[in-house]
Amino acid sequence: MKKEKFLQISNHIWEIPPDYKPGMRVPARILSSPALIDSVDEKVIDQITNVACLPGIKRYAYCMPDGHSGYGFPIGGVAAFSLSDGIISPGGIGFDINCGMRLLRTNLSFEDIKDKREELLNKLFATIPSGVGASGFLNLSRPDFFKVMEQGVEWCLEHGYATPTDIEHIENRGKLEQADHKAVSEKAISRGINQMGTLGSGNHYLEIEIAARANIYDKELAEVFGIDRDNQVLIAIHCGSRGFGHQIATDYLEVFDKCAKKYGLTVRDRELMSAPVDSEEGQRYFRAMACAANAAFVNRQLIVSGVRQAFRAIFEISDEALGIETIYDVAHNIAKIEEYEIDGKREKLLVHRKGATRSFGPGRSEVPAKYRSVGQPVIVGGSMETGSALLCGTTKADSESFGSTLHGAGRTMSRMQAKRTVRGEAVKQKMQASGVMVKTGYLPGLAEEAGFAYKNIDDVVAAVDAIGISKKVARLFPVLNIKG
Known about the structure:
single chain, alpha+beta, 7-stranded mixed sheet, 16 helices, about 30% helix
């Protein structure tokens, strides 16, 4: 890594100037920490500086502390583009469109579940389908799937799978208005129509976590977010749009490849293939991407409905007594139109977040009314061995990082490398010895997601807290895990 070219802006921000690479239109910024910066590899630097070369990019190309290499953009990448001369890029959003996190609170404490953990784990595993190609419990007609794409979680509310509070506490209320099913291919429809309500595979999971009083960083914020008792049981869900979103990204990469010459677009990496955001092809992809984003919101909502069903069956008490409510649902693979100050003027931009989370601070109209005085919840998923973190958005994120922060711990090695290092059974035994019961239909997948394959979540969270683009609220530790 040619660090001699880096400018250290502060203790946690490094800048790569435009003369680092021919064609860079803006500097790239690495948000990290003195402890983490040396682990940023050459591939990440190459990718984020390639992003800085894209037409219409504004201010900086950012890489978050959890950044690692991905398809085109690094995972942990944030970039905002002009709506008049900028681009839209599937590689800047990711194949798993609207992969994201949902966090639920309950009225239960660890004492309430400790003697029923195995029973609860088995019930959740039987209720929530997981694994490659898994089908959900819904038998959707094509017209119903079109409504899922265009109405998002409103469809769930109409059909009894959501509560009004669920919708209120989802980013964009679980619906991107730009969605139009006519922009989606038949192949994408056929891959997605039977997969609603499923976890999928890879690093996706459903986890029962505990918020102990000793691990609350900010008691007032935690209480606003619904964490109001010691050893409280929370439920974390990490998944996205499944094969549906993957097919949409694949379809439009092919479209963009064919039309690049027409628009005179050249990119340093074919995985960054893009189209002008105001072009007919770019707008069609934006509408299709919104369909996948809405389907992902619905997917997580249907899993929530399954979670409530499983808890009712095990604890035999009412929904009111269980108190399973959505704290927040936030996307970390998405592009959205948002307004920021550029050169002293407010301007609407297309913000790409790939492995990065929106982190809006207090006062913004997009933040749910319950949280508007403090900022939106930010959910950071760690490895299945180390649990998650709950943060809060800040006003500083607006000016520093286009209202964005990290999304997870960030990988330190590939899945293949992790599988070569340890066997899934060994990971399972280690987790059980530390008090985490885990269930999966694919044991080698546990090796892929072992804790050592990720950065230390406390280190990356400390970095964004120090920069001020989000604020620590609570650390959550797992007791049950269903690995997709």
